[in-house]
Design goal:
alpha+beta, 2 domains, 7 strands
């Protein structure tokens, strides 16, 4: 799914807000001096939101190069983020499994907004401050779908399911899901060694809906949460970066005790 539906929806929401304010009090700088003009702006905003929600969502096919591609070869919604880190794949992998909600800037604020400030059981939207975030996910609503040490981990969850239906739990169940009324999500973190030194850490999130009605339902949700989701993932990668570079020389992993000098030089020069 492209960024256009989200842009349309948020632009529409801004127009609705501006129009509503203009109905209550004129906004002379915007030439919204009458209630009729304010109402017109608000109506245009509503139409723009509806347009964003009505844009088609094509099905995409994965290339087959990663574990995520194998598990969710078809998908409708996706996002991709990456970050070069001046550390070895082993260091990045370890940091990835140690990062907590506190390490990820804005994580707890954005997830609190997403759950509307309501308290609830411990899960990915209500993560404890100092427990590794992947541990929280895998002990609650997510399942581990693949793991290749120092290379790639894939986790998945069911975001929409028919009442009483059993959610998929295995890679094969995610890959072959056809039952109506389901939307499943899978997310990976992948680490690749870079020829010039350091590692490339990427994360992809994909969502597959099994029927048009469920796809349209999720599209409305996705258009609203995408900006926050993208910010969380970028900050997640940044948190892994900080922790992996800060862990050098602290023992445990031989690579961490003796970092490659070329990586140190690369870190000094910057990515």
């Amino acid at each position: 799914m492209t960024i256009w539906p989200t842009l349309a929806v948020y632009s529409g929401l801004v127009l609705v807000l501006v129009g509503f304010v203009a109905v209550i009090h004129p906004i002379r700088r915007l030439r919204l001096t009458t209630r009729l003009r304010g109402s017109g702006v608000a109506a245009a905003g509503v139409l723009l939101v509806l347009l964003g929600w009505s844009l088609p969502v094509p099905e995409r096919q994965a290339s087959g190069a990663t574990h995520l591609d194998e598990i969710l070869p078809r998908y409708h919604f996706s996002e991709h983020h990456e970050r070069h880190i001046a550390a070895t794949p082993a260091q990045v992998w370890r940091a990835l499994h140690e990062v907590t909600a506190t390490d990820i800037r804005f994580f707890r604020t954005l997830t609190a907004i997403r759950r509307l400030g309501r308290p609830g059981p411990e899960d990915i939207l209500n993560a404890p401050a100092h427990r590794p975030i992947l541990d929280v996910a895998l002990s609650t609503s997510f399942v581990r779908l693949a793991s290749e040490t120092h290379r790639e981990i894939v986790v998945g969850t069911t975001v929409i399911a028919p009442g009483g239906a059993a959610a998929p739990r295995t890679p094969d169940e995610f890959r072959t899901l056809t039952a109506l009324g389901f939307a499943v999500a899978a997310m990976n973190f992948r680490v690749e060694s870079r020829p010039g030194g350091g590692s490339l850490l990427t994360t992809d999130t994909r969502v597959f809906a099994t029927d048009p009605r469920t796809r349209d339902r999720f599209a409305r949700y996705w258009s609203l949460i995408y900006p926050g989701s993208a910010l969380i993932r970028r900050q997640w990668l940044a948190a892994v970066d900080r922790r992996s570079r800060g862990d050098r020389g602290r023992g445990g992993d031989p690579d961490a005790r003796e970092p490659d000098r070329s990586l140190v030089r690369s870190a000094r020069r910057g990515p």
